[in-house]
Structures are given as structure tokens and as C-alpha cells.
Amino acid sequence: xLPEKFKKSEKTIKHSWFGRLYLGAADDIKLxxxxxxxxxxxxxxxxxxxxxKPVPQLQQFTWQQLAAPAxxxxxxxxxxxxxxxxxxxxQVPFLGYFSKAKFKQEIEQYWAQAHEQQLCELxxxxxxxxxxxYLRQSxxxxxxxRIKREYRRWFPWCKSAGLSVTxxxxxxxxxxxxxxxxxxxxxxxxxYVDRQLVKxxxxxxxxxxxxxTDKQRRACVIDDDNNLLLAGAGTGKTSVMVGRxxxxxxxxxxxxxxxxxxxxxxxxxxxxxxxxKQKLGTDDIKASTFHSLGLRIIAAVEGKQPSLSPLAEDDxxxxxxxQLQLDYLLKDEVYRKRLCEFFSQYYYVEKSPFDFESExxxxxxxxxxxxxxxxxxxxxxxxxxxxxxxxFKNGIEYRYEAxxxxxxxxxxxxxxxxxxxxxxxDVYIEYYGIDEANNTASYIDNQAYLESIQWKRELHQQHDxxxxxxxxxxxxxxxxxxxxxxxxxxxxxxYAPLPDDxxxxxxxxxxxxxxxxxxxxxxxxxYKAACLDNKGLDKLFNQATDxxxxxxxxxxxxxxxxxxxxxxxxxxxxxFEDMIAKALNYIQTGQFISPWRYIMVxxxxxxxxxxxxxxxxxxxxxPTQSKTTVSLFGVGDDWQAIYRFSGADVSLxxxxxxxxxxxxxxxxxxxxxxxxxxxxxxxxxVTQNPAQLKKQIRSNVTVTQAAVSVIKRGEHExxxxxxxxxxxxxxxxxxxxxxxxKLKAGAKQPTVYLLARFWFQLPDSNALRxxxxxxxxITIECQSFHGAKxxxxxxxxxxxxxxxxxxxxxxxxxxxxxxxxxxxxEDFKYAEERRLFYVxxxxxxxxxxxxxxxxxxxxxVTELIQDGYAIEQAxxxxxxxxxxxxxINCVRCTTGVLKQRTGNFKSFYSCCHFPLCDxxxxxxxxxxxxxxxxxxxxxxxxxxxxxxxTTPLCSVCGADMVLRKSARGEFWGCKNYxxxxxxSSKANSRQSCTHAVDKAKLVLPKSIDLxxxxxx
Length: 1016
Known about the structure:
Layout: E1 11-13, H1 17-23, E2 29-32, E3 35-39, E4 58-62, E5 71-73, E6 79-85, E7 88-95, H2 99-132, H3 137-154, H4 165-178, H5 182-199, H6 201-206, H7 214-221, E8 226-231, H8 237-250, E9 259-263, H9 266-280, E10 287-289, H10 290-302, E11 307-308, H11 310-313, H12 315-329, H13 333-346, H14 359-368, H15 382-393, E12 399-400, E13 420-422, E14 427-432, H16 446-463, E15 466-471, H17 472-476, H18 480-488, H19 500-509, H20 512-530, H21 534-543, H22 547-571, E16 573-574, H23 576-588, E17 598-601, H24 609-619, E18 631-636, H25 651-654, H26 656-660, E19 664-668, E20 670-671, H27 676-686, E21 698-699, E22 708-712, H28 728-741, E23 751-756, H29 765-774, E24 779-784, E25 793-798, H30 816-821, H31 831-841, E26 844-852, H32 859-866, H33 880-883, E27 898-902, E28 907-911, E29 920-921, E30 931-932, E31 939-942, E32 950-952, E33 961-966, E34 969-974, H34 986-989, E35 996-998
Parallel strand pairs: 8-18, 8-19, 9-10, 9-17, 11-16, 14-15, 17-18, 20-21, 22-26, 23-24, 23-25, 25-26
Antiparallel strand pairs: 1-2, 2-3, 3-4, 5-6, 6-7, 12-13, 13-14, 27-28, 28-29, 30-31, 31-32, 33-34, 34-35
């Protein structure tokens, strides 16, 4: 309302003296409650120099038409009045010098009165919105420009305008809106959530069998455009999915038809449907898989359901079809030769021995990746692999590491075995791992290696045997087989190249072609999902871990891809990749308008990029007339992301906002499954990877004792009085059964999961049946680590924690072409396998047993033991070898552990990397227990504390020393001493060590107390 002094009738703003002189008889400006009016003429004086746009003869504006109050600007020739109306700017010059003092407040009052209702309505709308809606980022984006515009219309002039109490109150609120910062926005959102929690407390108390926790409730209510709920294992994420869907309907924010629930698989979707029906009492909200969603979208656009190929739904049928295609293609000579070339030269991912830190690591790589020749032999280097394959393909009979024809063995040294022997031509081949400068890998004793080369040369010269020498540097340059062929010309070899059919028969016997068929089956889907043109495909090859191998593999895959697409087209079918691609295309081209305003995705950490693309398209496909945007709600746990091999991309979770836009992230940190001890161990383990999102998981059950128990027992370790069970699995099950017997009678029979990385490592159905009969007070089930995800048991027993081809973590290299189509591999070593072990541990409610043979143990178990994890290691007695495995490492390859083996006459200890590492040594000469070199420098000590026999090591060559007698008394002599009768043999003289120490002068160290460790 205007003050009384402004309610008078029309007022006039006169021109200055210059205005009157320049404009002549121009009318003055008139102000009234209705608006502003003026009539002006073009100036008569200096007219030719006046270039300003002439003001229309008559201008009338209501105060509502002015964007803001008109402003006065003083000048030498009079005041200038400026304002904006209806999107245009106006100015009236040469007004009286005191116009601002006389009329400014009156103009502001008129304008304020005209715009008061508009301001108050805006403030009321904002307050109403904040009271009834979550302040989404998109909503904030709509509000802030409007608030900013309104603020600039009123400020700063309103502070001195003497406005009404009502108007000032509205302006205070407007100023508050304008000065929102992140903290204030968070406060507004939190206040809304708090109000909703109070309003719908009864719903959240009763939607599940137990009231939802505060964080579960908040996750249901928080409703930004993009929402990510990071739900730890056992924290009740399904309860949130159900609760959120029910809350949206109960609060009137959505109808059932507005909600789309997406689950990872059909089984998960059915379980979600059952849960919703049970808890919400409705069939209207249905969970869908991504594939059924794709079918639904395609059917909506095309008017009929597409035909899904049987090959898409049956992996075995697809692999069988692919095998038939391979068989057909192999009738073609060109394709057959390509396949044989691929297997002989490109099948394995080659790594140089110079890239490893120890020989043991190199041997482990060869073992884990099962590097074998076309004949199926395991070799010790890629150079040997290519030599063997070239000989085999050319029909040249060879024997790998056959014993030399002349006996040069001794009591302490086994018979010399050259790398290759060609019996038809009596020719030996040695492949030496040295470069042009005679350097070996860093972990090899260079001098000793070069001396051994010289010894072999002299040996062959002495016995007049032919030996072809080949070298690593030739292999590195790609000249190895050419050099071999050139060297063999001197022996007039008769080449009889094997026909491709013979090579293929061998490959089939080894199962290589079947493995390739399985790989191609997986690659078909990944290739189609990637939607790459030739340029994109070339880029993918160049970025692969082995570009050449990737190109060669794709050459073999390409005709199969063509045949596969022709198969689909001929039958009018589509596969899952087509389904996602077509659905995505229909959304992006506007042929399908999404009816869903709320999209909820379960197991978000398992989403692939094509599926994420589909979800993102749906969030942007709402009708243009819609007043609200689509809300995306992803539920997942990056700690349980274990499906990269099938296309999942964990970065879509860890970098959620980078892909989908600004997001509200919530956490469920209270687990109802495992106790605090299991939680602490599992959390510490998985968070060693700094890329995992940080969260604290609190267990609902707190215990003070360790609940992860490691059973250290050899695979073939016999029962003892302390451990009467026949093996480690029986030991664990007996311990669980004994624990159950101590519980109160009438309790529900506990479940026990036997978990392993691979299904074949678990008991088969017969063995499982017998175990359930033997341990009748527990229910035993078998699950793979992947299969157990989302499930829980009272106890778990984790099997297969070893190294090797089927070890865990798996060191097997992913085929480069497959790896190129998968999500980028993480920088942290074993990142996904680490998460897989976390999944295995967190299936247990009460206790987890980890079975470990410490002579061939997973590095994950070693980490648990060595890095201070709160685990139980003393639940069972442990043999010396298992307890002190670190003390009996192989001295040659350094990473292997010595395992007890039985020979023809006595037991001995050899490296676990055998046959790649052939190091072996005898046990204690007194009790046959293992001995260690790590207790005291220069000595070997028996690990049996009841024996503690100690012997010195040779300070010259590192070999064992033995106690000998001479005319001058007892002395310690090197085991490598060959005696004077062999000095005449030039070939053997290098291996004799004459170092000796007088027994009286050598002081043996005191033994170490090993009490509490059981004997072997």
C-alpha cells in the first residue's frame, strides 16, 4: 500500500534549463499510480549532430511493465531517467537537476506496489515447493535463475525505500533464497527429509518385518535427479528398494506405473516382485530385467514382440553352434592356416623373463597361464615354445629335456639335460636366456650362467656331440626360427611339414579349439555391444595389451561374426545386444517416450556401459510437457563389483556423477549379516585398494574374538593325534559341528557354504551328499564365489586358496582381444579378485574358515597372516612346514616353497614350481625334517625343535657343507667338491668347490625355540 503522500494525483518531472532550450516546448514526464507517461520531441538545437534514436512521440507504461524502478543518473546538462519495459531500454534526458531527490522514492513506491503481489507469490511458491518436494539439482537449477532475476529487480534499492512490513518480510526471504550456499541447500534438503520421516514414520516402521533403520529411511526419501545408494554387504538394500517404491506411492509422489525397477537377472527380478507383493500388497509395481525392458520398448514401437534367438538364451547352444561354424570354416585352407598360425605363434600373451623380479615369479606366470607347446609339453620359456612348435610343424622329431647321451651325473648332480634333442640327426639344441651383451635377467647369477654355457660347450666338444646354440636376443628380434632353420642346414634335415589336419587334431586333443570357441562366444556379444566402426576398432586394437595378437584373433572371429548375423537375420531373430541397441535407438530418436518418472536399478556395481547408456537415455526421455525430471536411483556396492569378465564396469559406480550428472550419495553402513570380527577383516582387506569408495561398515553383532580362522594344512598331509580329521575340509566341518553341538537344542539347523573360485574345486553331488550324512547337525551347500553373491550362511569354508593355473587370485592373463572389449582394467593389482574374496568372507554370519596349504598358498592368505589382520591362527595345531613355510623358500627361484616329496629311496624337499624349477634338497640328516637358511646367516637349521641340527653353508658357492675326516682331523667341506680324481675332466672341473673349514674353528649358532609347533 502506498504512503499517504504518494496517493495524490499526477505529478510532473520537469526538464532542466538545457532541456527546455534544446527540446523547446516538449512535455514533461508525468507520474501517477497507474504508471509513467511522457511526450518528447526531437531537439531543435544542434539537430544535425544529435544521433540518438528518437523517442516516440507518446510513451505510456504501467508500473507492471517496468522490469525495475526507473533510475536517475545526474549529468552536467540535467538528469537522465532510464528504465526497461517489455524487453526494451528507454531513456529520457535533460530532466531537472533535483529530479532524483524529488521523485526517486515515489517511483520506487509506485513500482513496489505494482510488483508486491508477484514477489509474494514467488516466495510462497518457493516455500511451498521446499515444503513438499525434495530440492533436486534440476529444480534448484530452475529456481536459482528466477530468484537471481527477482533479487536484482529489488536489491539494493529496496533497503532504503521504506516499504511495507509485508513486502520487507518477503524481501528478507528472497534475499535468503538468493544467498543459498551448499550448506544451506543441504540443510533445506535435510529438513525436508526429516519432515517426511516424521510424517511417514508408521509406514517405515511396518513396511518390512523389522522397522527400517534411520539410514534406510533416509535413502527412501532422498530424491535428487541422480541418486546412488552404496549399500554394504548385508545392510538391507532390498528393504530400501521395497521401502522407496512403497513410500513414493504412499506419499502421492508417484503412481505404480511411474516406477521402473530394474534387476540384474530374472531370478533377482522375481525375488523383488515377491518381496513387493508380500510387503506392499500390490502386483502393480513389477521388477524388470534389462533384457525384458528392451523387449518391452521394442514391442511398444514395433507393435509386436521381437523374436529372441535361442542362441541368446542358451550359452551351451551358442557354443555348440560356434563349434560347428569353426568346423565349417576349417574346411577352408586359408582359415585353417590362420588358425594354426594363431595357435603356434599368437595364442599366448608373451612376457619377457627380463620383466620379472625373480625366477619364481616368471615360473609362476608360465604355470598360471599353462604355457604349453603344440604337443602339450610345459616349457620354461617362450623361446623354447617357438622352437618346439617350429620343429613340430615341420615334422622334425624332438625330445624336450632328454638326458644327454653320455653320463655326466654324480652323487650330487643330476644328469645333464639339454633343451632339445633331435634323435634322427643326433643334434642337441640349447636356448640361452641372454641378450647381445651376454646379460641375463636380474635374478639370474650372470657369471654362473655364463660359466654353465661354457661348461656345456666344452662338454659337447669333449664328447664330439653337435649342439646348436640359440639366444633370447634372436627371439626378441623375431629371428629365432630363421636362425634355427639356417643352423639345421648343415645337418641336411628332411623336412616333412605336418598337414594342418594333424596340427588341428593335436589342438583338439589339448582342448584349445574348444577354448577358442568359448572365447569367441563371449566376444560376439561384447563386440556387438561396443558398436564400433572400423576406426574405433583400429583404435581398440592399438590400445590392446597385445595389438598383434588381438588383430590375429579378430581375423579368426570376423567370419564367425558375419555368419552369426546372417543366422539371426535368416530366422528373423535378435539377441540381447540387439535388444539393448534397438531399444536405445528408439529412445534416442524419440520413437519411444518413457512413461517412468522413477527409475530404480539394483546391483548397480554390475552394470555395463551399454546398459548404463540405456538407463541414461531413459532419464532424458520424459515428455517435454512434464514439469519434473526423471529420478534415477542406483543401489550397489563397489566393494562387491565382481563381473568385469561379463562386461560390468565398476567405474560407473565409483564415478557415478561423472557419467550421470550431479548426484546425491547415501550409505547403508549397518550390516545385519556378519559379526564385527568378520566385518573388520573383510573391510581392511578390500580397502587396501585406494580406488574403493570409503565407507565404514558397522556390524549389528559385536564380538571380541577373531571369527576368521585359517587352517594351515597340506593337501596330502596325513591325520595326526592332534588333527584326526583326514583333511582340512573335514577338519573345518568337524570344528563347525562341534560348535553347533554346544548351542541350545531346538535352534534352527545352521547352514554351511563350501566356497571356491571354481566349481570343480568343490565336492561333487555324491561327495556333498556324504558330507551331509556325516555331519547331520548342519546343512552343507556348495557355491562358487560368484554364485554365492547375495546369499548368506551361518558358516563358510573357503577352499582353493592356492596359486597356479586355477589359483586365487587368478594370474591367468585375459586374452588381449577380450580384455580390449572389457572395461578398463584397474591399476591396483588383483582389484576384482580382492573384491571377490571380500564377497566370499562376507557370506558368513558367525565364522569363516579359510583352508590353506602354506607350501602353495594364495597371496591373499599370506597377506592375512603377515599384515596384522585380526584372524585366528591357533584354533588347530599346525605342522612345522605349514607353520614355518616362510623359512623354507626355494633358494633358486626365491618365490617357491619347498614341498616334501617321496623318492625311490628316501623323502626330499623340492620346489613347488617343479618341473619349471628343479631345485631340490634333502631334509635334516638326523630326523628328515625341513631345514631353513633364514635363521642364521651362513647356516642351515633343522626346523624340528627336538632336533635343531645345524650345518654350515659354503661361503664360496652357497652349497651345503658336510662333515668330513682327514688325516689332520674333522673339517667341514663343500658338497660341490668333486675330488682330485675328477680334476682331469675339463668339462667337470668348473663345478668342483674346494672350500673347507676346520671343525674346531667353526662355532655353530644356538638353535631357536620352536615349542608349540607340531612335528611332521
